[in-house]
Prior knowledge:
alpha/beta; about 40% helix; about 15% strand
Amino acid sequence: MRLLICGKGGAGKSAITxxxxxxxxxxxxxxxxxxxxxxxxxxxxxxxxxxxxxxxxLGGRKNLSKEFNKLxxxxxxxxxxxxxxxxxxxxxxxxxxxxxxxxEGCACPYGLLSKVLLKKMVLGENETVLMDTEAGVEHLGRxxxxxxxxxxxxxxxxAEGIAIARLLRDEATRIEKPxxxxxxxxxxxxxxxxxxxxxxxxxxxxxxxxxxxAIFKSGLEGSRLEAGTAQVEIxxxxxxxx
Length: 242
């Protein structure tokens, strides 16, 4: 199963992706595919080393278009160890590509690589791939969603988060993919407001994840992700929908 995790910057995509990965490890192998070309925090949250990128595995961004054939029937589990790192919890982490230096250019080649990779990768029995995307909706223009089984949007308590969720819902409807919306970092003060704002856009939350101080502290320290109530709420979401 391939799941695309989307949302605005700061919504909590990486944290929720990791919490979902922990739940899916109870069913089989799980891989997080980091397609955010700028985020550097995932390895620390997982408690693992930083993997080299699949773009570099293919010879670097200048060679990507020539080397896509190497991705035919690719198994993430069979990547050389420098390109996939396994966390103490058994979660595999691999990265599509990163902006490494000033003046390197835009991340468009990495977006195309994400699209090709999702379509050509082969999953074993009970394997799950969670793609943690870059902030916003740029991946819509790249057609990354075509190679996935469902879209999950993470929405924090902002009007922008709701607006992005509506766009992603419409895209999921267009390409006939299941769509789920998780309201994240929710407090009692904003819960009713967020649900009402979502309703105004024709959106129904699939789950509510309340503000979890343990997650906030982990992100601030840049350490292995700890979670309290959020892990329980994500467990309920996973078991109810997948």
